[in-house]
Design goal:
The protein has helices at residues 13-33, 40-57, 68-92, 100-132, 146-157, 178-187, 202-214, 254-290, 337-344, 352-358, 371-380, 397-400, 410-425, 429-445, and strands at 137-142, 163-169, 192-196, 218-222, 234-238, 241-245, 296-302, 308-314, 362-364, 393-395. The protein has 451 residues and is α/β, with parallel strands linked by helices. The chain has three domains: 13-132, no CATH class; 137-227, 3-Layer(aba) Sandwich (Rossmann fold); 254-445, no CATH class. A four-stranded parallel beta sheet has the order 2-1-3-4, with helices on both faces. The protein has a two-stranded antiparallel ribbon with strand order 5-6. Strands 7-8 form a two-stranded antiparallel ribbon. α7 (202-214) links the parallel β3 and β4. It is found in: Membrane. The chain crosses the membrane at residues 12-34, 40-59, 79-97, 103-125, 265-287.
Length: 451
């Protein structure tokens, strides 16, 4: 028997984290911002604001299965909100003489210390689980298929997450019944029950729900293994009526929309000022020297909420009547020599930063398609229209995951839709930054489908 308690919850961890973080933000303020003035008002207002912000941003909702990148995303989000609050405070209480530069340095110091503390706790808990066998949860799985086997392997191969998997029940096997499962759960003091929906009938699901409720067991369901698209259901109440929302889209949140739009404006402005200001004349001369026609190519595409907009690119083809109907293919004779280079390096896409600045596009998002292709794929490819819940992007997760360029088979567009839906449902500023970096790396290396 382990010497350490195997309880399901670390009940004191969150309150302790609150207290330590408040000590950090107030302690740093006392030492750095208020060397002469009385900081009492600041302490009261900023502590209350911190609490409200953390509830809103779910800053302390870090679980054993939370990935480090998600923790970092929470920290960045909380930092931006906290920075705005401190600036607002300095404006309201200008007599305290808190200036912009000290505020930025103060918030950076706070979040370096808070980040160190948060990740230290996270990794110490993982070490505690692997080295001492504490803070773990006993699990069983009901139902046997590829997904439950994958979950079984996850539990066994990742002890740092603190799951001790005891048994997987195959209800299709005559030796296993729900009654035996329930007896085993009680006898072994199981903490969490995982069920495969595809392996259970409605009556079996109802029995398991009742058992879990009556015996204070955590119950979780694994979606049907035939479903290839991710679903993040949101559970809400309309009065006393439970309602499930099919998917939760982070960019429907006004704060997330503000953050993304602010990033888009800043990033696109930098690209336009630092790169396009001098590169555009050079590209324009090269395009004009090789062929007659305009420097820029304008094409109507579908964007946010299916709205049509004009998407801009450097012209990379000879002027032709098929430009608005047919994609470039491998060895396409319409592509000029200059066009081949700018397409290979993705320079032809740079004018779309003006689309971003104007608000039609985002730096990162699902790539927009020609209107004719959108109409075709909407009829042919399931869930294709989900991509229009957010603004289209210059680059996207699908493009950095091998699904850029020409759609040669249905597999290409299905893969693109799958990654686009994942991006829409799991957006974060850090994910955008990661995609931008990967896009730059791919452009330098060159891609097989960049033609």
């Amino acid at each position: 028997m382990s010497l350490f308690k195997q309880g399901r919850y670390s009940g004191y961890l969150r309150p302790i984290s609150y207290i330590i973080d408040l000590i950090i933000i107030n302690g740093v303020a006392a030492l750095y911002l208020f060397k002469s003035n009385d900081p009492t008002v600041f302490f009261i207002i900023i502590s209350i604001s911190w609490f409200l912000l953390s509830v809103y941003s779910r800053f302390y909702e870090v679980y054993r299965y939370t990935r480090p990148v998600n923790i970092l995303s929470l920290i960045v989000r909380q930092y931006i909100l906290f920075l705005l609050v401190v600036f607002a405070f300095s404006g309201l209480f200008h007599e305290l003489l808190i200036y912009s530069k000290p505020i930025v340095i103060y918030t950076i110091l706070c979040f370096i210390l808070i980040s160190i503390f948060k990740f230290t706790i996270y990794y110490l808990l993982q070490k505690y689980r692997t080295s001492f066998g504490g803070n773990y949860r006993k699990t069983v799985i009901i139902g046997l298929n590829k997904k439950t086997l994958a979950l079984n392997n996850f539990f066994n191969k990742n002890p740092e997450y603190g799951y001790l998997h005891k048994k997987t029940f195959n209800l299709k096997h005559k030796t296993n019944t729900l009654k035996e499962c329930f007896q085993y759960v009680l006898a072994e003091d199981i903490d969490e029950i995982y069920c495969s929906i595809s392996e259970l009938t409605n009556s079996q699901i109802a029995d398991i729900v009742n058992f879990a409720d009556n015996n204070l067991k955590i119950l979780k369901f694994i979606p049907d293994s035939k479903e290839i698209y991710s679903k993040k259901l949101r559970y809400e109440y309309y009065d006393y009526i439970p309602v499930l929302t099919l998917r939760n889209i982070p960019l429907e949140d006004s704060v997330n929309t503000f953050i993304k739009r602010g990033f888009d404006i800043l990033f696109s402005s930098l690209v336009i000022i630092l790169i396009l200001s001098w590169l555009t004349p050079i590209i324009a001369i090269l395009i004009k020297l090789e062929s007659r026609g305009t420097v820029f190519f304008k094409q109507t595409r579908n964007g946010f909420n299916y709205k049509e907009f004009d998407c801009y690119k450097f012209r990379s083809m000879m002027p032709n009547k098929d430009a608005h109907a047919n994609q470039a293919t491998r060895g396409d004779q319409r592509v000029t020599k200059v066009g081949k280079f700018i397409r290979k390096t993705s320079i032809d896409e740079l004018p779309q930063f003006f689309n971003v600045l104007f608000g039609d596009m985002s730096v990162v998002g699902p790539r927009p398609h020609m209107v004719s292709h959108t109409t075709l794929y909407a009829k042919k490819i399931d869930k294709f229209m989900v991509r229009h819940f957010v603004k289209p992007g210059i680059t996207g997760l699908a493009q950095t995951s091998g699904f850029r360029g020409e759609v040669e088979t249905d597999k290409d567009i299905i893969g693109r839709v799958r990654y686009d839906i994942f991006y829409i449902e799991n957006w974060s500023l850090l994910l955008d930054i990661k995609i931008i970096i990967q896009t730059f790396v791919n452009a330098v290396k060159g891609e097989d489908k960049a033609y």
